[in-house]
User: What shape does this take?
Amino acid sequence: MSAAVLRIALDMPLRRLFDYLPPPQMPLSDAVGQRVRVPFGRQRLVGLVMDHADSSDLPAARLKAVLEVLDASPVLDRSAVELLRWAADYYHHPIGEVIAAAIPKALREGAPLIAMEERWTATAEGAEAAAKGEPRRAPKQRELLQLLLARRGASASELSGGLMEGWQDAARALAKRGWVASTEQPLLPADTRDAETASALSAVNISTDGVAGPAQDAGLDARKKAPVLAPEQAAAVARVSDSLGHFAPFILYGITGSGKTEVYLQVVERVLARGQRALVLVPEIGLTPQLVSRFRERFQSPLAVLHSGLTDSERLQAWRSAYTGHARVILGTRSAVFAPVPELGVIVVDEEHDASFKQHEGGFRYSARDLAVVRAQRAGVPIVLGSATPALETLHNVSTGRYERLSLSRRAAQAVPPRVALVDLRTSAVQGGISTPAVQAIERHLADDGQVLVFLNRRGYAPTLLCTACGWVAPCRDCDARLTVHRASERLRCHHCGADAPLPTRCPQCGFLVKPVGQGTERIEETLAQLFPTVPLVRLDRDVVRKRGDMEAAMRRMHSGEARILVGTQMVTKGHDFPNVTLVIVLNADQGLFSTDFRAPERLAQTIVQVAGRAGRGTKPGEVLIQTEFPEHPLLLNLLNEGYDGFARVALEERAQAAWPPFSRLAALRDSAPTSDAALEFLTDARRLRVPPRSIQMRGPVPAAMAKRAGRYHAQLLLESADRTALHRFLSVWLPEVEQLKSARRVRWALDVDPIELF
Ligand code: ADP
Ligand code: ZN
Ligand code: ZN
Assistant: This one.
């Protein structure tokens, strides 16, 4: 006999769903997306209903029943469930683990979907009794009854939070007589702006015309006045607004400071005016208080902010606020692409080229940008991918007509693009990593009241500790890497595994004095302090920014003008607006010019353009100096002469010739093991399992460029094909076999579909 079953996803590394019998009263049609508790071996697990079926392949006797349904309504709506299934298919990853990435931990552990609170109210009998002055003998009970009548009830937390001490006993006694009662009620987020929101919503303006006009005319949700848009901005807002209500992918391609954020704000405003909500994704490092406050200042509507720095309970709260529809704008990093957004109207992905949108650790390696496009397509809403340096994949999508390009070619606020020049390190005098022309430029800009930004993508004091007598360099025991000198803390640290040791003064091999070689930000800070002893400096890198607030403190010193020079890593390149920075110096553009990774030139060009974009954002003209040993390198010349657009054109031609993405598709099977042999053995076994069709090339296995990391050996097997469908078809038959390999148990492995870093 066959019985209807629920097909349930459990957080397990298995590529399948599990069949369970539904509870008798459960309407199956509403079951999808609900959480259930099920028996699994000796455990009880929380799972998510993905589907239901009329019968199971399992014999009826072996089917177990769902123990409990946790939600009255689905945690995920049908489109979210479909997106997750799509992601599990595309990334060839177990659905249970995909869902685990999408839902806050607290919910996976069974926390209620909507926060409930215990609320006490007086009953009609209670009101009558109180009118007669009851209960006469119990002043405490009388006081509570009066209080509940006067306030029309109170929550347990309000009562405990100062309304009345020791109210519990009185409440129990009153409840026994039927004079008060308690209920569990959904807790509304304690947002002080609730009232304002309600009034803003009731006054929603449905009209979407007049797109070019300033915001105060178009939407009533504006709290801070929006500037009048420049013509290109207005055109971009109009194009996206015209597409509200159906899928349309846009790339908002505008140099830094050209007003992209302003375009997002005004598009979001129109979406809110339609009674819909917006999902805004930003890179990990881009989610700065500056950006969040621009959204907060502009809109009265509540915001939910989701990022990796939240505690589990903060994340649950933000998620609930999105789920209930309380939040109207959901702003978040990578995993926010899975956030529930009822009445979604638009998706924005800021800095869409940023590598942090790709999850590159753990098992489920997804691209939040790519999933955002899929989500927009499924939801039938426009998506705006913004960048000053779009990914080559994205630009390719423009040239094939899949995406529409919206350009912002001018800077807002009268700023002009900076002048960019190369400094030849071979012919210039260099002191502590800084060339004489750079020093002179700094002097000039400081004298002109400008601020200076010095960029170096390497933290620490020096990347190498060397013995000049015997040639010894301090190595990491667990990695194929050198230890970095950290002078202030007097430590040697490995930037790959975190190994940490005291800084020796003498060579452990021959006893001669050792010396730091090369520069990190810490040393540059020291050199600048010697060159400009009276000029206040700020350094910004992961060593100085350790907790929330550190970054803001550094930013404040720059903004107030107290600090004049900012030295930093990648951290300084994004999301911050320093109107007074007039000079940017890129100390070393050469890492990346000769890398084995085919994406290295793209990343280098993006970094240079992004950091250069920090110069001259205000009204003063900016200047950018790039130090290099290879001033004739075509990439640098091309970038200098034709900008990112010119670079991208040449780089895409090169990709086409070499048949790299976007002209082919990649998937990397990667692993790590305690020995190099074990790492290679698994991949060799995997390769031998199946001969792929001719349209697919398998390359490797090869050890990673830095094979040994944190004591484990890394290797990879690359699959490449011009035919995406063929590649995925092959992966779906091959991977289940790979999983079964005996050697798979001796390694840690993961499949990376569309990898963005190759080693
Ligand atoms: P992006 O996101 O492209 O870097 P922003 O939106 O942050 O650019 O704009 C850069 C600066 O110009 C900001 O200070 C912003 O307030 C200002 N700005 C943007 N658009 C306008 C406009 N239409 N009129 C006046 N100022 C603007
Ligand atoms: Zn030595
Ligand atoms: Zn190490």
